[in-house]
């Protein structure tokens, strides 16, 4: 699997201190949460595909307003 070349900010807080992975996503829609949780495991190609869909949707929304 291909990894992203983007740099990631590492928190100074440890895993036990910061809580369970995804715990801070409590109020987020279940579908969006699934995307956020899956993001680190996606290939670069899949990430670009998701972003392409999002960007296309935003352009369509802007045109319809």
What does this structure look like?
52% of the residues lie in helices and 0% in strands. The chain is built from 3 helices and no strands. It is mostly helical and 65 residues long. It has a domain at 27-64. The chain is flat, with a radius of gyration of 15 Å.
What is the gist of this entry?
The protein has 65 residues and is an all-alpha fold. Helix content is 52%, strand content 0%.
Please indicate the percent range of residues in DSSP E strands (runs of 2 or more): under 5%
Which structural class fits the helix and strand makeup?
mainly alpha
Order of helices and strands: HHH
DSSP strand count: 0
Q: Tell me, what's the shape? A: flat
Total of helices? 3
Features:
3 helices; single chain; mainly alpha; 65 residues
Please specify the SSE layout and strand pairing.
Blueprint (H helix, E strand, L loop, with lengths): L14 H4 L11 H9 L5 H21 L1
């Amino acid at each position: 699997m291909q990894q992203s070349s983007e740099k990631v900010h590492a928190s100074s807080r440890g895993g036990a201190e910061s809580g369970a992975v995804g715990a801070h996503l409590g109020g987020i829609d279940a579908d969006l949460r699934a995307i956020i949780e899956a993001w680190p495991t996606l290939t670069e190609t899949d990430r670009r595909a998701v972003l392409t869909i999002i960007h296309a949707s935003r352009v369509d929304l802007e045109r319809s307003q």
